[in-house]
Amino acid sequence: MAYYFLFPEKDSTLYSHPDRETLNTGHDEILEIVKEKGTTNEKYYPSRVLIKFKNSEIQSVINDTIGFSTFNTSTSCSLQLLSTEHKNLSRVLNLETFAISQSWDEGTGRYPNTPKTSNGCSWLYRDNDIAKSLWITGSHKNVGVTFSSSSIHISSIPSSSEHRITINEIDFIPVISSSLFNSDSPNDVFVNISSSLEQFGLNLASAINASSSLTLITASFTGSTNLLTLSGSNSGSQGNVTITTASVDGNNQNIFTSSFGTFNTQGGTSTISIALPFNNGTSGSIKSGLGISVGGGTWYTGSDYKATQQFINADNLDTNFNVTTIVKKHYQNLENNAIYPIGIDNNGFIIKQPDVIEENLSSSFGEMKYFSTDTHTIYPPRLIFKWDDSVHSKQSLAKQNGELNVSLYRNQNEYNQNSEATFRIHVRDKYPTRQFASSSNFLNAGYFTTSSFYSVRDADTEEEIIPFDNNFTKLSADDEGMFFKIYMNGLQPERYYRILFKHTNNEGTRIYDNNYHFKVIR
Length: 522
Prior knowledge:
By secondary structure, this protein is mostly beta strands. Helices cover about 10% and strands about 35% of the residues. It has five helices and 33 strands. The strands form seven sheets. Strands 2, 3, 4, 6, 20, 22 and 23 form a seven-stranded antiparallel β-sheet that branches. Strands 7, 8, 12, 13, 15 and 16 form a six-stranded antiparallel β-sheet that branches. The two termini are about 25 Å apart.
């Protein structure tokens, strides 16, 4: 009999359009799933949406309101975004949502800002265009207890000791002769450049294998292709290989490259860090070779980390993703520090079109728009917890036929937005059987059947906030009569709401809408 709403901590849209690869839209009022036409070509570039809910609020509703046992066995969680002005939509539309596997910054940008704002997440970066922390864009394949190898191409012999390649925080520095160099740092390893590229590659691979700090990583070098191959084991604490390269400002020699992009920022004052491959069980980016920059978030894969929804000729395009398994993974990490695959960090959700739609750059499906957490309306996104805590042991006394008078009592009319309000319902026969008694039969408790439910609507817009739900809005019954509970913190304050009842008995189903109103205040 319970619905509980959480509202987002942050959200943003990521645009792959070349003009907006670093655009942050963290404070936009609208979230967009769209394919934008290129400025200088006929390609259509997809967008994706990120959204996150607070850790503390997720823990609180589960521990303090629902209870772990009920949450773990009979609670459903839904991710709902409320739609706004869609345009030119296809007849059939599909959306997917996944658990995000990397952290991200919301930022304060908006789509129409001039100049462009880049102080938060974007298609390329998960933080901003100053720190430039790229979304992981490598590839991953599990084979037993090891992940598949990732190859780095060594394109030339370093011309000096002005370069370095860092592997999981261990610096390998090419030098003319390692005997001439010394360092106080245990993380510095000097590698002889030698006279040939092949020998330098072999020296580098040997230094990596000899490092006592990289026991979970092995390296090999193939002279015919000039490829340095790194392999790592998931049996230890390091499940991926992080590569960073840098050089002295002004030295633009391009040494280390990969099919996933250059591991090199020679001539710059910053470095680029790329993790190879994805963290265990994750994916991301977009298929290479399409003409779209890699990026756009990373996410966990598998049925426990994914939810889908299809719309066919839909007038109502509100999302209602069943994200129960994802929230359970988040909770296991928050409460028990469980790691993949038992638990995962709560980095939120990513919403996107299926790959087959995103990768078709020749056409658009239209524009799907949703209100964001920064909307100035009553329609922000929400994470809905639903569970059945109804109790009804009065079925034998329930009204199975005849017209009924139904009234709501103990309605305080106004409730603080943090209240948990219990409403009572008086049910009696409209035309009671005449009898002689010492007290009024109006004082006797009357009961709906176990097939009775409540619903809550916005009194002004008629939006159905809590629908009649056969599983989660059942009315309860005790010796005093029928009752139900509403958690007010899921309703927008300073608005009026209306309560309706649905009752099914031997004569069919009837809706009782007698203008039972209440207001939520701050």
